[in-house]
C-alpha cells in the first residue's frame, strides 16, 4: 500500500535519526527518509541529501518535508525547485511533533491534503 511519505530535514544527523526511530516505532509502514547534516557529517544541511531523501520515498500519494530551522527550509525549497515532482510540500509544523502527527495520519491512509489540513489546524495560530 502506498502512503504519504515523510522527509525529515535537520542540521543534525542525530536529530533526524532519533526522530525517525520514534516514528518507525509508532507507524512502521510509513515511508520515512532523513537528510541530516552536511555531506561531510558537519552541522548544516545538504541540498543533495534532501533530494536523495525525497527521491528515495516519493510516490504519487505525495511527500511532506519537515525541517528544524530556517536555513533547512531554504535548502529544502531549493531542492524542490531543482526537482520536477508533484504532490510534495514543506510542512509548517514542528519537526518532531508535526512529523509524528503526519506519520500517524499517513498510516491511516489519509491523502496529502487531509494531512496538511490537520497540521494547519494543529499548528497555525
Textual characterization of the structure:
Keywords: Kinase, Transferase. This is phosphoenolpyruvate--glycerone phosphotransferase. It is an enzyme of class 2 (transferase). The protein is an alpha/beta fold. 50% of the residues lie in helices and 15% in strands. The protein is built from five helices and four strands. It has a four-stranded parallel sheet, with helices on both faces. The model has no long low-confidence stretch (mean pLDDT 95).
The helix tally amounts to 5
Multimeric organization:
single chain
**What percentage of residues falls in helices of 4 or more residues?**
40-55%
Poorly predicted spans? none
* Largest β sheet strand count, sense and barrel closure: 4 strands, parallel
What strand order characterises the main sheet?
2-1-3-4
Question: On the 0-100 scale, what is the average pLDDT?
Answer: 95
**H/E order of the elements?**
EHEHEHEHH
Strand content: 15-25%
Question: What's the alpha carbon Rg, rounded to whole Å?
Answer: 13 Å
- Tell me the span between the first and last alpha carbons: 34 Å
Number of strands: 4
> Which word captures the global form?
globular
Structural class by helix and strand composition = alpha/beta
Structure keywords:
alpha/beta; DhaM; single chain; 5 helices; EC 2.7.1.121; 125 residues; four-stranded parallel sheet; 4 strands; globular
Amino acid at each position: 500500500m502506498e502512503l504519504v511519505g515523510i522527509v525529515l530535514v535537520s542540521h543534525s544527523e542525530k536529530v533526524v535519526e532519533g526522530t525517525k526511530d520514534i516514528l518507525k516505532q509508532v507507524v512502521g509502514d510509513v515511508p520515512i527518509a532523513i537528510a541530516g547534516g552536511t555531506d561531510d557529517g558537519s552541522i548544516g544541511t545538504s541540498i543533495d541529501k534532501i533530494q536523495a531523501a525525497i527521491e528515495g520515498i516519493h510516490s504519487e500519494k505525495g511527500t511532506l518535508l519537515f525541517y528544524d530551522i530556517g536555513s533547512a527550509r531554504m535548502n529544502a525549497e531549493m531542492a524542490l525547485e531543482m526537482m520536477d515532482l508533484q504532490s510534495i510540500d514543506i510542512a509548517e509544523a514542528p519537526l518532531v511533533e508535526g512529523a509524528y502527527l503526519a506519520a500517524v495520519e499517513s498510516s491511516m491512509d489519509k491523502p496529502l491534503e487531509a494531512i496538511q489540513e490537520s497540521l494547519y489546524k494543529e499548528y497555525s495560530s
